[in-house]
Amino acid sequence: MTDEARERWKQTIRTINDFPKPGIDFKDITPLLADARALREVVDEMAQPYSSMHIDSVCGIEARGFILAAPVALKLGAGFAPIRKHGKLPYRSEAACYQLEYAEAVLEIHADAVSSGDRVLIVDDVLATGGTARAAADLVQRLGATVSGVTCLIELSFLDGKTKLKGLDTHFLITY
Ligand code: AMP
């Protein structure tokens, strides 16, 4: 990835202050997704480090993680599995609780979404405090699969989310 490309992608990401609540600077990636060249480049770049790792399944985290995870799965010749918020999955599921800023949240995965021994890549749009990605990794590991990596388009490094992912391979395209 060149600095020029990274700068160009950054230009397409808008920061919406105080959304969805006061104090949060929301990274809106919809203009990047709407830019055909940037979309293709970021999908390529998210997949690239894992291209020779024989990934079996790419798990996308609801909701913006889905958008990036499915094309990354296609690139890697892997399947796609959704990790969703509580109560959305129709079949038998595993659940993991985690801490948000002021509340608890629950993520779920279908019990048969990945199999024991599978190599799994976890994809989301933004790594903030890391709680969401950690919970996703815990779910995958609980099903007996291996987390080969966690890749996010954006890392908010001042929130130090990487600390929660210690021991896991991580890959971020844009850091604030
Ligand atoms: P966290 O668990 O704190 O790492 O939060 C990550 C999850 O919340 C991801 O699924 C993101 O989509 C979302 N998120 C957290 N902070 C932001 C932000 N500033 N802008 C956009 N999405 C965010």
Describe the protein in words.
It is a single chain. It contains five helices and nine strands. The protein has helices spanning 3-12, 30-34, 36-47, 64-76, 131-142; strands at 14-17, 25-28, 57-61, 79-85, 93-99, 104-110, 119-127, 146-155, 170-175. The protein has 176 residues and is α/β, with parallel strands linked by helices. The strands form two sheets. Strands 5-6-4-3-7-8-9 form a seven-stranded mixed sheet, with helices on both faces. Strands 1-2 form a two-stranded antiparallel sheet. Helix 5 (131-142) links the parallel strand 7 (119-127) and strand 8. The longest helix is centred in the middle third of the chain and has 13 residues, at 64-76. It is globular, with a radius of gyration of 15 Å. 30% of the residues lie in helices and 34% in strands. The structure holds adenosine monophosphate.
